[in-house]
Design brief:
about 500 residues, Heat Shock Protein 90, 3 domains, 17 helices
């Protein structure tokens, strides 16, 4: 497996009534279904102070039912909007619908992400938060997020990976820039063990309208984050010992099982890509050899690669590839194309188990990245992506210069996908973060015509980029589905040429 390896594979001055202790006006908000909502007096909500504990703040909200969910999340979101802090919300779809109804027009100022797609494999969540911080962080306006990676109905393996993700969040963001993340847990429907794990992984707990430090909080050591054993499969297993000369056979075995599971051409190709990357990394970093195990489960195919190496970086695969560092891409790529990745490593070796579902959520960061790059490299892919846009968006893209288009779509060499082209109106800054920086310094009044124009431009550019990425992913899926019998191997070669890293 890829990554750093040894031997192989977070007295106040009185304020006038109606203000909090930092002088920020208390908000009055009517939240449907919450005491003080429609039919009663509005609820007085005091925005939490970002400076109470300093740095990165990782809190859990333990709620029972929709009313408590909204009472715990809506004030947190609205307080961020009032401060002009960037806000991202990644929750299951039904919770998104509830929040949009509760927020009304203010919902347009929030970046909503479908956690059922993003967090289907929890290893994809940290890169999404990193990208959000990179695009929006400023000192004056630290971002805040709401993320619910574990919800009722997730499988035991998914719940376990979600809990490991929560522990890894502390490892990923401790000591970094200030921002706040609130993680809701449906305590009325999740098991006591899941709730207990939430109390261990969050420094502060919100419940019953109160917040306090968690007495159970336990920072995890790096080795513990990847420790543990995986349960044995319940289905018959096809096993293959391999070395560098047998990678083609690895791909062939996995391809057959993907077909047997009814995954379809594109999903089978993703599973083969994952197995190829894991096996190749075992050869390179895990002692030169490894063992493949592959089997089918209802509606899915699973493969597992074992080797003798040990992974020392618990965040391997959860950082975007670095173009100037060969070997940083393997597990990241695997995390993007699979519906679940379970990674365990210790002195006795490393095991990586990956699952691809017949109907999954693989249109994620890897699919977007590959489709974007292929749409730039191949005119037919670009045209297919453009055709997937609405007429107005297609016209807006067509009016851009090639350089502006590349900046907007994140395909310009050496430029972050967060970089946006310069607007045509006066006062429209070139990047989303620049807008927040100007607001934070008081140099841009959000109520002024220039301020409103800058915010509109930033939101519209981000929306257009997002629409094109969706269209590019769909076009990419269609193209992958048309690949021939050896399409998986073809995809491996294409991705190796289109993506950075070694």
């Amino acid at each position: 497996m890829t990554g750093p390896r040894g031997g192989g594979c977070g007295s106040a001055t009185a304020q006038p009534r109606g203000y909090n202790r930092k002088g920020v006006p208390a908000l009055r908000l009517a939240v449907p279904g919450v005491a003080g909502g429609p039919g009663g007096a509005a609820t007085s909500i005091r925005p939490a102070s970002d400076g109470d504990r300093g740095g990165w703040q990782h809190d859990a909200l333990l709620y029972h039912g929709t009313s408590e969910f909204l009472a715990g999340t809506v004030p947190f979101i609205v307080a961020g909007i009032a401060r002009h802090d960037p806000v991202m919300v990644a929750v299951p779809r039904e919770r998104t619908r509830q929040l949009r109804r509760a927020l009304g027009e203010q919902a347009d100022q929030v970046d909503f992400v479908d956690m059922e797609a993003l967090g289907r494999n929890p290893a994809r969540i940290i890169p999404a938060w990193r990208a959000f911080l990179t695009a929006h962080h400023t000192r004056a306006h630290p971002p805040r997020g709401v993320g619910e990676p574990i919800w009722p109905g997730r499988s035991p393996a998914e719940v376990d990976e979600g809990a490991r993700h929560e522990a890894l969040l502390n490892r990923a963001f401790d000591g970094g820039p200030a921002w706040r993340l609130l993680c809701p847990y449906d305590a009325g429907r999740l098991s006591p063990a899941v709730v207990a794990a939430a109390e261990r992984h969050h420094r502060a707990i919100h419940r019953d309208g109160q917040a306090g430090l968690s007495p159970s909080f336990q920072p995890s050591e790096d080795r513990a984050l990847l420790a543990g054993a995986l349960p044995e499969p319940s289905s018959p297993v096809d096993s293959l010992a391999f070395d560098g000369d047998r990678l083609a056979e690895v791909r062939s075995r996995v391809r057959r099982h993907g077909a047997a599971a009814g995954l379809g051409a594109a999903a089978t190709a993703y599973l083969v890509v994952a197995a190829h990357e894991l096996a190749r990394n075992s050869v390179r970093h895990g002692g030169g050899t490894g063992r493949l195990r592959v089997w089918t489960e209802p509606g899915a195919a699973v493969c597992e690669v074992q080797d003798r190496g040990e992974i020392h970086d618990p965040l391997v695969g959860r950082r975007a590839p670095e173009p100037d560092r060969p070997g940083t891409r393997g597990l990241w790529l695997v995390n993007q194309v699979c519906d679940l990745v379970e990674l365990r490593s210790g002195p006795g070796g490393t095991v990586a188990r990956v699952r691809v579902d017949r109907v999954g959520a693989r249109s994620s960061a890897l699919a977007a990245e590959a489709a974007r790059r292929l749409a730039i490299l191949h005119g037919s892919w670009r045209a297919a992506a453009d055709r997937g846009l609405e007429a107005a968006d297609r016209s807006a893209l067509g009016a851009l210069s090639a350089d502006a288009r590349a900046l907007l779509l994140g395909t310009a060499p050496g430029r972050s996908p967060a970089a946006l082209p310069r607007g045509s109106g006066e006062g429209e800054p070139s990047t989303g973060p620049a807008v927040w920086e100007l607001l934070g310094r008081g140099l841009l009044d959000p109520a002024s015509p220039r301020g409103r124009g800058a915010l509109r431009f930033t939101r519209e550019a981000a929306r257009l980029r997002s629409a094109w990425e969706v269209a590019a992913r769909r076009a990419g899926e269609q193209q992958l589905a048309r690949l021939g019998p050896d399409g998986a191997a073809t995809l491996v070669r294409v991705l190796e040429g289109a993506l950075p890293g070694g």
